[in-house]
Every structure is written in C-alpha cells, then in structure tokens.
Write a structure and sequence with these properties.
304 residues
Length: 304
C-alpha cells in the first residue's frame, strides 16, 4: 500500500526554514514569495539537538498514534476501492501501519514538529483522476523529496489563499466520505440492527469530537474536557475523543461485536469480508499488495 503526503501537508515544512531566519516565508503575496534569493536547505538527523524524552509527551503521542492508525486504516480501504483492488488483507494493514510508524520515527529524527499519516486528499485525488498507478505515486514522491529542499517552493504553496484549498478539500474529502458509505452495500441495509449501529456511530462520531474541540483551550492552558491530575491520561483521552473517525470506529466496533453479533453474521456482511482477510484469500492479493521494485526478494517472509 503506497501513500504520500498531500499538497496541503507541504506547509508543515515551513517552520524548518523559519528557524533559519528567512522571514520572507511569512509573505502571503504570491509575487513576493517567489522573488528574492532561493534558499536551499538540506535536513539531517538531530539538527536541532538531541531528543528529549518525557513520559507525559510519550503517553500523549500514544493517543495521537492511535488516532493516526484508525484514520489511516480507513484511508487504505478507500484507496483500494478507488484503485479497483481487493480490500486490504489484515497483514497488509498491519504492514502499512508499521511502515507509517517507521516514517514517524524518521520525522522525529529529522526534527519535524508533526508526524505523518496517510493522505485523505491524495485518496480523493485518486478517485477524481482515476489514476491508480503505483509508478505515478513513486514519481510524485520523488518530486516532493526534491522540491522539499527549496524554501521558496514551500513559500509558494503557503501563499495560495485558504479558500482555494478549502474548495479543493470539499471535493476530495467528499469523494472519500462517499466511498466509505458504499461499503454498506455488503451488509443488510434493511436490518434495524444495522440501521441502529450506523446511525449511532455517525451521530456520536460527529457530536462527541465537536464537544471536545469546543471545550479545549488550545492557546492558553491546553486543557480539554478530560482534566484529571494525570496529564498523560488527559492527553490520551482528549486526543482520541477529538477525532471523529476514531470515535465512530470505537462505537461501531463495540456495538457490531456485542449487539446480537453471532445471529446476525449474514446481516453484518461477514461472509463477504472473510475471504479477503487472509493472505491467500484471493488470488489477486499478491498482485495488488506485493512490494514494488523486487523488495519481496530481500524482505523476511514474516514482513510480507
């Protein structure tokens, strides 16, 4: 499963250059952001000093990692749907999340202030352009790596008005949301049990995160609705319950596996999903989810 950061995520590289003292990156005029001397800056490990480990920060990032895992899993399924591939087997999902963890480790090593995650925007672009070639993703990643060393290139994206990004996101996020709804076709939509679970998951997935966002002070205190004496505990719960996909997943998973789950096996669509969850469940899995560039020949079998 291949994924890269979306165009909007390139803005997160701006602090890397601001620390260099290039005040021109704060310009929002497109003409000024592309003028002047072009700085070239290569990142290297631990360029901002040795890492600092604090238990509160580690536990807080555990909640963020869980949220990233849930959101990325949904993105993987949407990408497979748009690309015309089989649903990702369990070992592919685990492998993808593991490589995402490796990417986050590299982010911290090179001094990034944020981690990475699967790009919902790029999945929407996949559905919009109908280009599902893995080679296209690889070439795009090469271009992003090349242009990331040019500060003015990042300033150009920062100068694009936010309404332009918002208009693009309305289309891209809408496509991903709609393809998620299409998975309901594999369940019995006439079952009151399924209707109840779907409705409650959607409602709580929207309302609970909205409550947490509205009652969290991100500027002054950083405190949210969960405000106990344990800062790490607060960080984990406030992060988890501020993510709509994570809340919807928790509610839907608990209800689907406890509410008359055994007798409603066919209504849940388990019979349709089960063959795709195994490595050899479908003959096309190897074609869709094998490593590119003959990496399969060098990777230990347990990681394939």
């Amino acid at each position: 499963m291949s994924f890269v950061l979306g165009p909007g995520d390139a803005i997160t590289a701006a602090p890397l250059f601001l620390l260099e003292g290039d005040a021109s990156l704060l310009e929002t005029d497109p003409s000024s952001s592309s003028s002047g001397e072009h700085r070239i800056r290569m990142s290297y490990p631990f360029q901002w000093g040795a890492p600092i480990f604090r238990a509160s920060h580690v536990f807080g990032m555990m909640g963020a990692a869980l949220v990233s895992t849930v959101e990325s899993t949904g993105t993987f399924f949407a990408a497979s749907r748009f690309a015309g591939a089989t649903p990702p087997p369990a070992h592919v999902l685990s492998r993808s999340i593991g490589f995402q963890g490796v990417g986050q480790l590299l982010d911290g090593t090179f001094g990034s202030i944020v981690g990475n995650t699967a790009s919902v925007e790029n999945v929407g672009l996949l559905g919009l352009t109908h280009v599902g070639s893995r080679r296209v993703v690889q070439v795009s990643a090469a271009f992003m790596l090349f242009f990331s060393i040019f500060g003015k290139f990042g300033a150009f994206f920062a100068s694009i008005p936010l309404p332009i990004f918002a208009a693009i996101y309305c289309v891209l996020y809408g496509l991903v949301a709609s393809v998620g709804v299409t998975f309901i076709q594999f369940t019995n939509s006439n079952s009151m049990r399924n209707i109840y679970i779907l409705g409650l998951s959607l409602f709580l997935g929207i309302s609970i995160p909205q409550y947490f966002v509205m009652n969290t002070d991100y500027v002054l205190t950083g405190r949210g609705p969960v405000n106990s004496n344990g800062g790490w505990f607060n960080s984990i719960l406030n992060t988890i319950f501020s993510s709509p996909p994570t809340v919807a997943m928790i509610v839907g998973t608990i209800l689907d596996n406890t509410l008359d789950a055994h007798d409603a096996r066919d209504d849940r669509g388990v019979a349709w999903w089960h063959p795709f969850q195994h490595r050899k469940g479908d003959s096309r899995n190897e074609e869709f989810y094998s490593f590119p560039l003959r990496i399969n020949e060098y990777m230990p079998r347990r990681f394939l």
